[in-house]
UniProtKB/TrEMBL annotation:
Keywords of this entry: Leucine-rich repeat, Repeat
Organism field: Sciurus vulgaris (Eurasian red squirrel)
InterPro entries: Leu-rich_rpt, Leu-rich_rpt_typical-subtyp, LRR_dom_sf, LRR_domain-containing
Matches recorded under Pfam families: LRR_1 (PF00560), LRR_8 (PF13855)
GO cellular component, one term: cytoplasm
Keyword Hydrolase found: no
The name this protein goes by in its record: Leucine rich repeat containing 69
PANTHER family, per database record: LEUCINE RICH REPEAT CONTAINING 30, PTHR48051
Cell inner membrane recorded as keyword: no
């Protein structure tokens, strides 16, 4: 039946570069497609296709393929032969995995729509989709995203709404062209500091997560829209912190000493440190106390500062003040803090 429909579509169509066979209850992709190597656009959405036929591999000129709302269970291996493909729609299937090699030939793909499937993970191979600018994987079961995804240098839109993400990798900072980032309804508790490096980011939606505080420099983002409803954001309520003595580990004491001597350009240590790459690596992770200006390594007090949202941000109603994370070096400095810095009660 599908073959007949195809013939009819070819005869009836004015443009032989486009075939539309959507909503025809097709179970099997017509194999005669292989006789149309110049085909540019193929619409097969809203059918009952559970497998892609091998003949589709002949469509090396195809630029748009829509297989949305079918019964596929994987991103088919045959995709790797569709080397001209620019837009691939696979939404509304039952996809729970990528066939091995599926991403291999998709060097020109700019849009991939995998919304409404059953993916629990994305393969590292997505890093091979070098031209990708738009990726949406809304309404799946993703528990994490692969770091390789953060190296798609042209990606400008990333939609991951309604998944089970608990964190976002720090490497997100490498998505230099990202403009739109949607993370609605996940289980994210902390946004990575790297997000503050996304200079092009203009729309960020984190509604429905578990975020209490934002990384330092977050308010410097040039957002136009920011939505954060239904997050347990810190509100401006002073908490009484216990004024304990600080107990530091030997490593912390030593590294603070070394880091602060280095900051003062201590001649002997400055020379000596050249011979200890591991120590250099360790102290490169140093943080600077905003109160005393000194460096510390791994023991700190987490505080929160509330800043008004930048005027250019279009924001959700629940956000009166943006709670920003501030790390300080000691209780000594905590006791010297200015009145708009609040301690966070340790639960
Ligand atoms: Zn300090």
């Amino acid at each position: 039946m599908a073959e007949k429909l195809l013939l009819r579509a070819i005869k009836g169509g004015k443009n032989t570069h486009i075939i539309t066979l959507s909503g025809k209850k097709i179970i099997k992709i017509p194999s005669t497609l292989e006789k149309l190597p110049d085909l540019k656009t193929l619409y097969l959405q809203n059918n009952l296709i559970s497998k892609v036929c091998p003949e589709i591999s002949a469509l090396t000129q195809l630029t748009i393929l829509n297989l949305g709302n079918n019964l596929l269970e994987e991103v088919p291996e045959e995709m790797k032969y569709l080397t001209s493909l620019k837009k691939l729609h696979l939404f509304g299937n039952r996809i729970c995995r990528f066939a091995s090699g599926a991403c291999d030939g998709l060097q020109n793909l700019i849009l991939l729509n995998l919304n409404d499937n059953h993916l629990t993970w994305l393969p590292q191979d997505v890093g091979r989709l070098k031209s990708l600018t738009h990726l949406s994987v809304n309404c799946n079961e993703l528990a994490s995203i692969p770091i390789e995804l953060c190296f798609l240098k042209d990606l400008c839109e990333l939609q991951l709404n309604y998944n089970q993400l608990t964190c976002i990798p720090e490497e997100i900072k490498f998505l230099k062209k990202l403009q739109k980032f949607l993370l609605v309804r996940n289980y994210i508790e902390v946004l990575p500091e790297g997000i503050c490096n996304l200079k092009k980011l203009s729309i960020l939606d984190i509604a429905g997560n578990n975020i209490q505080i934002f990384p330092p420099r977050f308010h410097n983002l040039k957002l136009t829209e920011f939505y954060c409803e239904e997050n347990p954001l810190f509100l401006k309520q002073p908490t009484v912190a216990l004024q304990q003595e600080d107990i530091w580990s030997l490593q912390e004491i030593t590294s603070r000493y070394v880091m602060n001597q280095l900051a003062g350009k201590h001649p002997f240590l400055t020379r000596a440190i050249e011979h200890y790459p591991e120590v250099r690596n360790l102290i490169s992770q140093a943080k600077k106390c905003p109160i005393c200006g000194k460096f510390f390594l791994s023991i700190w007090l987490e505080c929160v500062r509330f800043v008004p949202p930048p005027k250019k941000w279009k924001i959700s109603r629940n956000l009166q003040l943006v709670p920003l994370q501030v790390l300080i070096c000691s209780y000594k400095c905590f006791n010297r803090r200015d009145p708009d810095l609040f301690g966070i009660a340790q639960v």
